[in-house]
C-alpha cells in the first residue's frame, strides 16, 4: 500500500505509514519515494565512510545495528530495510534525522541543525549544538501561540525571488523531560523517542495556511559559564563559519561532491539574514528570560 505525505515542501510517497508527517497529495508526482526493500551492506564505489555510513556522489547508506539500513539515491528515493524485531519508532528516529538530512543535501537544500518558528510573518531559526536548547525555545514560543515549522532539521531553499525559505517538516518536536517540566507540560502518555532516553515526542501545532514567510534571523544558542544572557551580532567572515558549524551532517558534503555548492548556498543565505549569537548561562537554563530577550531583539 502507498501513503502520501508532505514534509519540507516535498510530496512523499511511502510504503510505510509515517503519521508524523503532514498529509500529501496522491494526485501529484512524488518528489521522494520511500520503498521497503533490501539495502546492500556495502556501497559500491564508496568514496567516504564514517560511523555507520557510506557515501559517494548521489548515494548514501546508513546502517544502524538492530534497527535498519537506509539508502538514499539521487535525492529521489529512500530504500529502507528494517531489521527483525526493530521498534518502528526507532526506525523513524533515524529516518527523520540523518536520512532526511542526507536527502536534503542531495535535493539541493542547505540543511541546518536548527529549529524554525513563524514569528509575525517572519521565519526565525534557532541553531546550536545538541543540548543547546533549540527544541526547548521553539516549544516555548509554541506555548505563546507561535507556529513551529520544524525541529532539529531545517532545510533552507530559495524562492523564485531568491529569498530564503523553509516549509513545515515533521509534525512533532523532541523534548527532554526536564524541558517539559520547565514549561509545565505533562509528558505522561507521550512516547519516548528511543529506548530508555528521557526524551519525548511533543506534537507541533502548525496551521493549514501556506508557507509564505521568509527566513529573517538565525539565533545561534551557545551555553557558556557566565551568569547573564547575552545577544551578540555576528559580523564579517565569522558569519560563514557559523553556518558551516551549524550545517546538518556537514561531514557528508565532501563525499557527495557538494562542498562548493554548500559554500554558494551559505553565502546566498547570509545576504538575507541577521545572525545573532545567544550566550546563555550553562549552570541555569533561564528559559523565560531567554524568550523575552529574543522577542525584544525581534521587535527592536
Taking the alpha carbons of the first and last residues, their distance comes to 52 Å
Which bin fits the share of residues in helices? 10-25%
CATH architecture of the largest domain: 3-Layer(aba) Sandwich
**What's the number of extended β-strand segments?**
19
Beta-strand percentage? 25-35%
In total, how many domains does the architecture comprise?
A: 2
Total number of helical segments?
A: 7
Rg value: 19 Å
Cross-sheet strand order for the largest sheet: 3-1-2-4-9-8-7-6-5
Largest sheet: 9 strands, mixed
Which series of helices and strands comes N to C? EEEEEEEEEHEEHEEEEHEEEHHHEH
Shape: globular
Describe this structure in words.
The protein is an alpha+beta fold and 300 residues long. The protein folds into two domains: 3-107, no CATH class; 111-299, Rossmann fold (3-Layer(aba) Sandwich), CATH 3.40.50. 24% of the residues lie in helices and 34% in strands. It is built from seven helices and 19 strands. It has helices at residues 88-106, 134-143, 177-182, 238-245, 253-256, 259-270, 287-299, and strands at 3-7, 10-14, 22-23, 32-36, 48-50, 53-56, 59-64, 68-73, 77-82, 110-119, 122-127, 147-150, 153-158, 164-165, 172-176, 199-203, 214-224, 230-233, 274-281. Strands 3-1-2-4-9-8-7-6-5 form a nine-stranded mixed sheet. It is globular. The mean pLDDT is 91.
Amino acid at each position: 500500500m502507498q501513503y502520501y505525505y508532505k514534509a519540507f515542501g516535498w510530496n512523499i510517497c511511502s510504503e510505510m505509514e509515517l503519521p508524523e508527517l503532514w498529509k500529501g497529495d496522491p494526485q501529484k508526482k512524488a518528489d521522494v519515494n520511500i520503498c521497503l526493500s533490501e539495502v546492500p551492506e556495502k556501497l559500491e564505489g564508496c568514496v567516504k565512510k564514517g560511523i555507520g555510513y557510506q557515501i559517494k556522489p548521489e548515494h548514501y547508506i546508513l546502517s544502524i545495528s538492530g534497527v535498519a539500513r537506509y539508502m538514499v539515491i539521487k535525492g529521489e528515493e529512500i530504500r529502507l530495510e528494517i531489521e527483525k524485531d526493530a521498534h518502528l519508532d526507532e526506525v523513524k528516529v533515524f529516518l527523520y534525522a540523518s536520512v532526511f538530512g542526507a536527502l536534503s543535501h542531495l535535493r539541493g537544500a542547505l540543511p541546518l541543525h536548527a529549529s524554525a518558528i513563524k514569528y509575525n510573518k517572519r521565519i526565525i531559526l534557532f541553531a546550536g549544538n545538541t543540548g543547546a536548547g533549540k527544541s526547548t525555545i521553539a516549544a516555548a514560543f509554541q506555548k505563546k501561540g507561535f507556529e513551529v515549522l520544524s525541529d532539529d532539521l531545517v532545510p533552507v531553499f530559495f524562492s523564485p525571488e531568491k529569498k530564503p525559505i523553509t516549509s513545515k517538516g515533521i509534525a512533532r518536536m523532541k523534548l527532554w523531560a526536564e524541558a517539559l517540566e520547565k514549561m509545565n507540560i505533562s509528558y505522561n502518555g507521550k512516547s519516548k523517542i528511543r529506548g530508555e532516553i528521557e526524551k519525548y515526542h511533543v506534537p507541533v501545532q502548525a496551521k493549514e495556511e501556506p508557507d509564505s514567510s521568509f527566513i529573517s534571523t538565525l539565533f545561534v544558542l551557545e551555553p557558556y559559564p557566565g551568569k547573564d544572557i547575552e545577544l551578540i551580532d555576528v559580523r564579517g567572515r565569522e558569519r560563514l563559519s557559523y553556518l558551516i558549524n551549524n550545517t546538518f551532517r556537514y561531514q557528508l558534503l565532501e563525499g557527495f561532491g557538494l562542498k562548493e555548492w554548500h559554500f554558494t548556498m551559505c553565502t546566498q543565505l547570509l545576504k538575507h539574514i541577521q545572525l545573532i549569537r545567544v550566550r546563555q548561562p550553562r549552570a541555569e537554563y533561564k528559559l523565560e528570560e531567554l524568550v523575552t530577550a529574543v522577542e525584544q531583539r525581534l521587535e527592536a
